[in-house]
Structure formats: structure tokens, C-alpha cells
Amino acid sequence: MIKRILRDKLQSQLGSSKAIIVMGARQVGKSTLLKELLDGNTDVMWMNGDELDIQQLFSQLTSTRIRTILGNHHILVIDEAQRIPDIGLRMKLVTDQVEGVQIIATGSSSFELANKVNEPLTGRKREFRMFPVSFSEMVSHSNLLDEVRLIPHRMVYGYYPEVVCSPGNERVVLRELSDSYLYRDILSYDGIGKPEKMTSLLQALAYQIGSQVSYNEISQLVGIDPKTVERYIDILEKSYVIFRLGSFSRNLRNELKFSRKIYFWDLGIRNAVIGNLSQVESRSDAGALWENFCISERMKMLSYNDSFARSWFWRTQQQSEIDYIEEEDGKLHAYEFKWNEHKSKVKCPLSFSNAYPDAAYSVITPQNIEEFILSHS
Q: Rounded to two decimals, what is the model's pTM?
């Protein structure tokens, strides 16, 4: 079994007075991790927020009733907690009124769950984000050499646990994942009036990884207004399908200030969305896949390390650009991603180095990828 980075973090919180919130897309391994962590623990009661009777139970919850239901159990696990109305208030009731009981809640949408628990549970919770399996986790599971060799495979099929654990059946698993996890959660939001437009939007974003995204252009392409495009993208981001990078701007007048790029947390999902699971060697988008792979793995690593680093891309009106900028503790580091190692001798744009002379600059290729996504410096 692949050991997940969050395991030790969650273990350290067991027995504390705080509720534990684990957020991440469906099928990234949240429930599996908790079952492994709590295996053999007879103090645990499991509930599933997807089930109607559980939703009804919490709608009429009192401290007396929950004490009776829990009996001698001291840990209450609630899967897909965002499905339960007013779950934050219900969790607060248990945390405050039922002594000796700790709640662990999972959710596949920060859009719903975070909004419901943040205010009621202020100071009473610890939040964690969980992603598809990371490069780092696979290196620990096997070894660095094997995982580096498998990077072209991961760039096509991604890192969802079931995909990683189903060699030879990746296409079948990805079809099921992209259908069930994308459409069950995202397209079920009340605010999505035209699900087919969301699907078209997702495909448009998949074709634009690594490129600047214009909401106006996408609105014309998909046939919905720019404000709806932005709202749908917000839902996709808070459902852990995509994430956005803004543009870095401080010193130069011609730096782009309000642009954004969009990446997928998992390339297998991205490739399934556009129906292209051909091998990297034959693809015209290999460079974009490499950029997405590097940045998404870096973002996983920063999140798991509780980093305060901030991330951007950089571009000027004259088309000078850098793929990724990171700042932590006042230090800037610029990165360029090159899938073709023969192009790894590129130099930092002069306009950037002149404007930010103290910034470090690195080119990341398959030859040195471990420096970027295994270490945090």
C-alpha cells in the first residue's frame, strides 16, 4: 500500500480536542487513508454524508441524541460531510457539547465544506488538503529511478490511486473516474444551469494548460458570458480539478498584471477530458504536459510541507516570459520547464534579471526534476 504523506500529520492530531477536516477530490484516497489510520480501532463510528438517513439524522441533531448514538465510540468519521446541511453547526455542537468525542470529516468540495465549517469551527479544527498520489509518495513507495522512468507514463495517465494501482487498465479506470467524479460532484451544483457548457468549458481549459487564459475568449468559444465562465472556473478550482496561477508584477510597467494560467491537479483527468491518451513521444502538447506536471507536483509538495510560498508566472507585453515564479521569506526563484533536455540551456530573460537581480533562476528538465519536487528550499 502506498503510504500517503498526510498519514503522519493526521496521526499526530488524533486524540486532540480539535475536529479534523480532510478535503480533496473524490477518489484521491481520503477514506482509504482514514480506514488504514484507524484500522482495528473499535472507538470509531463511520457515517456517510451522501446517505439520506444520515442527512436527516444531522438535521435534527441534539447533544443528547448524538451521545446516545455514539455510545462508547470516541471518534466520529463523516465522509462527504459537505452533503449534510449546516454541517459546521452540527460539528460545533458535537465538539462543544459531547465530551471526549473527536470528529473527522472529509469533503470533496472546499466550495461547500469550507464555507460551512469555517465560521462555526473557528479555533476548533485542523484542515488538511489531500491530492492524487504525488511523485514524492511514489518515490517512497518504490524508488527514485523507477519513478523518474515512469514520468512519461504519469504525464498521460496521472496519479489517481486507482490508476496507479491498475497498470494495464488505466484507460478504463480513467473513463470511470472522469465520468463519476467530475460529473457527479461538479455538475450537481444548483448554480450550474447548463451542464453541457461546463463540460465544454473544462475541455477548453484542458487545451489551454500552460497558456494565458482569457475569460472573454473562452466565453465566446463556449457560449456563456464571462462572469459565468469565472464562476464555473471557481467551482472547478474549489472541487480540486484545476488551480490558477496569477501573473507576477512589481517593477516593470509592461509586466502583465491581471493575467492567469490554469493547470489541472491531475493530468490523467485532463487527458481523459479531451479524449487523448496517446503516449508523450507522439504528442504535440508534451511541453505543456511537462509544465503542468512540474507545477502541480510542486504545489502538492508545498501544501504538504505547510509552506507559505507564493506562486505566479511572469510575462511582459513584449512576450518575455517565465513559466513559474516562487517567493518565500522574501526570496524570489524563477523556473523554466523544458521537456526537451537539448533546450535546457535557455537563459533568464534580461528584462527579468535586470528588474529582479537577486532572483535565482533554474531550468527544470527530467534530468533534475527531483530537485524541484522532492526538496523544499
A: 0.92
Half-sphere CA count of 323, side-chain side, radius 13 A: 26
- 275-284 per-position pLDDT tens digit: 999 999 999 9
Cα 350 versus chain centre, distance: 34
Reduce the DSSP state of residue 40 to 3 states and report it: coil
d(CA 49, CA 6): 22
* 44-48: strand order across its sheet: 44-48, 75-79, 102-107, 19-23, 125-129
The pairing of beta strand 260-264 with beta strand 242-247:
antiparallel
CA distance 273 to 326: 29
Query: What distance in Å separates the CA atoms of residue 126 and residue 124, rounded to the nearest whole number?
Result: 7
Q: Give one DSSP letter per residue of 96-160, joined into a string.
A: HHSTT-EEEEEES-HHHHHHHHTTTTTTSEEEEE--SPPHHHHHHHS-HHHHHHTHHHHHHH---
Instruction: Please report which helix (H) or strand (E) contains residue 19, including its range.
Output: strand 19-23
For residues 339 and 312, the answer to whether their CB atoms sit within 8 Å is no
Q: If we measure between CA atoms, which residue out of 112, 111, 107 comes closest to residue 127?
A: 107
- Give exposure, 12-46, as e/b (b: 16+ Cβ within 10 Å): eeeeeeebbbbbbbbbbbbbebbeebbeeeeebee
Give ∠ CA 162-164-168 in degrees, rounded to 5.
95
369's grid cell:
526534476
For 298-337, what is each residue's pLDDT tens digit?
999 999 999 999 999 999 888 889 999 999 999 999 999 9
